[in-house]
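Troubleshooting log. The previous structure file for this entry was overwritten by mistake, so regenerating from the original sequence record. Sequence copied from the archived sheet and checked twice against the printout by T.R.
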Amino acid sequence: MKKTFMPSLLAGCSMLLMTSATLTAADGSEEVAQKAAEAWLLLTDQGKFEESWKAAAEVFQKSVTKEQWEKALAMAREPLGDLISRELKSAEATDTLLGAPEGDYVVLQFTTSFANKKEAVETVTPMLGEDGKWRVSGYFIK
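Regenerated output below.
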């Protein structure tokens, strides 16, 4: 059985190690955050790694350079092959993530299938920016 893992850089910048269960997002924000995350995931699915970095939250961009992100994501995603399916498994609003600044986050988990990995779990964490837009602040896949 082939085991796929994320480079430690990607895992380290994901800021998804542990979450607090404090719910803070306003009604409907989980759905808006999910749409932002899905649009961002589409960039990664299409191999547009530079664009996904540019579309990410500022805290994400400060934690990993564009070049580091492109390399880490290529190493993690390309071996998985094409996306087959992705379904939302859970969504949890929180204002606290271990190792991350306080803010409004939604931790989304997707059950995902790729051509070369039939069962994966993607965790995507959009955060609400000061401009009122949701942008991905963390991504982890296992």
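The chain has five helices and four strands. Archived copy saved in two places this time.
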